[in-house]
Write a structure and sequence with these properties.
Mean pLDDT: 94
Order of helices and strands: HHEHEHEHEHEHEHEEHHEH
Oligomer: single chain
Number of helices: 11
Strand content: 5-15%
Bound molecules: aspartic acid
Radius of gyration: 19 Å
Helix content: 25-40%
Number of domains: 2
CATH class of the largest domain: Alpha Beta
Strand order of the largest sheet: 7-6-5-8-9
CATH architecture of the largest domain: 3-Layer(aba) Sandwich
Number of strands: 9
CATH topology of the largest domain: Rossmann fold
Length: about 325
């Protein structure tokens, strides 16, 4: 080792916390404290309950979301659309920026200033680190980052945290192992940072060239986390409460030969899962491209499909919260 059933209205929450989301940009998980996270997870629980009982609500009737994606997406874009629609709102979907004025040379600030004339909230995925912060500086409406390059993916981090909470019933003191492309994996960057608030032990499992950025490691150590690194899944399989697997991010490699050399480094198989704890969660932000064998899907500990569904509830909660309706 290198070292509700219940009422659709939120009645029991601290009004200050509600206020702290209203009109706020969501650009990095570093902006949240534990109370914020407890709030948003509680609202997500209520969203789940509403969807299960009645499918939809008109909480955001009359509101419009602009969904602006400069990079490919399946889950994030469609779950934001579904979230807005289940809240009774409407969506402007811009998923092929090649068909928008971006190809005419329009700058991000101008595109943002355009969309906020029509929409109340803007979801932005962009290939450059910090793009959502730039957008937020220009926008008077809330910007929600849907992933910025190799930086962060805050809403995925929130849904991952929520999934751990719902799968294991706690976030405190867990041993979480993150596996795969930890250098480019923005979902790992967000989740690791969120978990620093809960006294976790975090083991980062990767080939040497895909290790977690030093800056994030230092943040975790300063927050009091136990941080370990290894190249072998076998080092964590028996002790981890969560194994969070990621794909090697082909699109981030300048040299595809380097990608080829590391792309098949890890595969979680039923044989490996046989050695894992009986109560643990196997997670993946998806898409998977070989890191988890399909024969693992029926294992009750395989949480990645539930994780995906949780994304919609978390995004419903965030949309309602930033629009002051949670
Ligand atoms: N869907 C996630 C992301 O957008 C994970 C991935 O693409 O591998 O970061």
């Amino acid at each position: 080792m290198r070292s509700v059933e219940g009422t659709p209205k939120v009645v029991s929450l601290n009004p200050d916390r509600r206020q702290s989301f209203y009109g706020r940009d969501i650009v990095s998980v570093k902006q949240f404290d534990r109370e914020d996270l407890a709030f948003i997870m509680q609202v997500a629980d209520e969203m789940r309950s509403i969807v299960r009982r009645v499918g939809a609500t008109d909480l955001l009737k009359g509101y419009v979301l602009a969904n602006l994606f400069y990079e490919p997406s399946t889950r994030t874009s469609s779950s934001f659309i579904a979230a807005m629609q289940r809240l009774g709102g409407a969506v402007i979907p811009i998923h092929g920026v090649q068909y928008s004025s971006v190809t005419k040379g329009e700058s991000l600030p101008d595109t943002i200033r355009t969309l906020e004339c029509y929409a109340d909230v803007i979801v932005l995925r962009h290939p450059e680190v910090g793009a959502s912060e730039v957008a937020a500086r220009y926008a008077s409406k809330p910007i929600i980052s849907a992933g910025d390059g190799v930086g962060e993916h805050p809403t995925q981090g929130l849904l991952d945290l929520y999934t751990i909470q719902t799968e294991l019933g706690t976030l405190e003191g867990l041993h979480v192992a993150m596996v795969g492309d930890l250098k480019h994996g923005r979902t790992v960057h967000s989740l690791a940072r969120l978990l620093r608030l809960y006294g976790t032990r975090q083991t980062f499992v990767s080939p040497d060239i895909l290790r977690l950025p030093e800056e994030i490691k230092q943040e975790l150590i300063e927050a009091g986390c136990v941080v370990e690194e290894t190249e072998r899944v076998e080092d964590v399989i028996e002790t981890a409460d969560v194994i969070y697997v990621t794909r090697v991010q082909k699109e981030r490699f300048a040299d595809l030969h380097v990608y080829e050399a590391v792309k098949d480094y890890y595969e979680i198989t039923p044989q490996l899962m046989a050695r894992a704890k009986p109560k643990m969660a196997l997670m993946h932000p998806l898409p998977r491209v070989g890191e988890i064998h399909y024969d693992v899907d029926d294992d009750p500990r395989a949480a990645y499909f539930r994780q995906m569904e949780n994304g919609m509830y978390i995004r419903m909660a965030l949309l309602a919260a930033v629009l002051g309706k949670a």
